[in-house]
């Protein structure tokens, strides 16, 4: 098992089920690892004989000189999500990158969703990438996104989400950041005024009335958002077991990349 040797080092983990359609997560993992000069750990759990080989960065056709790539398999539990979480506790990555399928309610209730389980239980920020889409990079691994939506339910969740965005995106990269809030206009303007914003970033606020998830969906469509960033609290109460957290519900309905983190 890969072991962290420097507590200050930024480590990226990539979870794979070895399917060909999961390539979007691997491409983004390699691109971000090269950008941040970070070790990359590709992780596969509960391996079985005869499966496809682990993905190799050399097959992408990019310049991957200097990439520190580790390939890890891990077994501990019958449940793949529990096994993955156990491995992540040992690796202690700063970011996990996974591919996400869009599932129907019936599929979620009968088969579960690894992506939604990670959104609720993972110990580190997770970048969910919709399988079958281009994502946030071009064919050569260069970042292409320009508009990011930071969901601000309250000050604590908004600050946590914004901090994780700053860890992901270089301060000198020009992006538009939309701070979204459903509620009073004065709150989001005050919140924005207290943020430490990189000079290259353009900040705007967006306040709408109504249901948080529904209005966030509309705002993302209206503003052509490339990435959603949000912090969530862990599942709490019987209704959340059926409905899911804000993050789970948005991940389920909005088919674009999402960076999700937890409030500790």
Secondary-structure arrangement, i.e. CATH architecture of the largest domain: 3-Layer(aba) Sandwich
Q: What is the overall pLDDT average?
A: 83
The strand order across the widest sheet is 3-2-1-4-5-10-9-6-7-8
Q: Roughly how many Å is the radius of gyration?
A: 18 Å
Quaternary state reads single chain
Could you explain the architecture of this structure?
The chain folds into 2 domains: about 10-130, HUPs (Rossmann fold); about 145-260, 3-Layer(aba) Sandwich (Rossmann fold). The protein is globular, with a radius of gyration of 18 Å. It has helices at about 25-35, 80-90, 105-110, 115-120, 155-170, 185-195, 210-225, 240-245, 245-255; strands spanning about 10-15, 40-45, 70-75, 95-100, 125-130, 145-150, 175-180, 200-210, 225-230, 260. Strand 6 (about 145-150), helix 5 (about 155-170) and strand 7 form a beta-alpha-beta unit. The longest helix is centred in the first third of the chain and has 14 residues, at about 25-35. A 10-stranded mixed sheet has the order 3-2-1-4-5-10-9-6-7-8, with helices on both faces. Helix 4 (about 115-120) packs antiparallel against helix 9. It has 9 helices and 10 strands. Helices cover about 35% and strands about 20% of the residues. The model is unreliable at about 105-110 and about 235-245 (pLDDT under 50). It is of the alpha/beta class.
């Amino acid at each position: 098992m890969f072991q962290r040797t420097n507590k200050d080092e930024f480590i990226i983990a990539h979870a794979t089920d070895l399917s060909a359609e999961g390539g979007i997560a691997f491409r983004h993992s390699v691109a971000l690892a090269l950008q941040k000069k970070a070790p990359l750990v590709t992780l596969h759990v509960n391996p079985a004989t005869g499966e496809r080989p682990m993905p190799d960065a050399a097959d992408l056709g990019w310049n991957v000189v200097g990439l520190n790539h580790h390939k890890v398999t891990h077994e501990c539990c019958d449940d793949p999500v529990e096994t993955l979480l156990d491995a992540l506790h040992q690796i202690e990555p700063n970011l996990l990158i996974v591919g996400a399928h869009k599932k129907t309610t019936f599929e979620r209730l009968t088969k579960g969703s690894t992506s939604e389980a990670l959104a609720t239980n993972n110990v580190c920020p997770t970048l969910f990438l919709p399988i079958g889409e281009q994502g946030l990079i071009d064919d050569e691994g260069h970042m292409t996104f320009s508009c990011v939506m930071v969901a601000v339910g309250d000050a604590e969740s908004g600050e946590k989400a914004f901090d994780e965005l700053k860890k992901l995106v270089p301060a000198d990269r020009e992006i538009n950041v939309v701070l979204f809030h459903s509620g009073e206009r004065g709150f989001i303007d005050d919140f924005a005024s207290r943020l430490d914003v990189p000079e290259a970033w353009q900040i705007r606020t967006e306040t709408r009335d109504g249901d948080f998830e529904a209005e966030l969906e509309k705002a993302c469509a209206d503003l052509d958002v490339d990435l959603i960033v949000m912090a969530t609290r862990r599942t709490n109460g019987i209704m959340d077991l059926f409905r899911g957290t804000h993050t789970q519900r948005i991940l389920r309905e909005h088919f674009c990349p999402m960076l999700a983190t937890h409030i500790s």
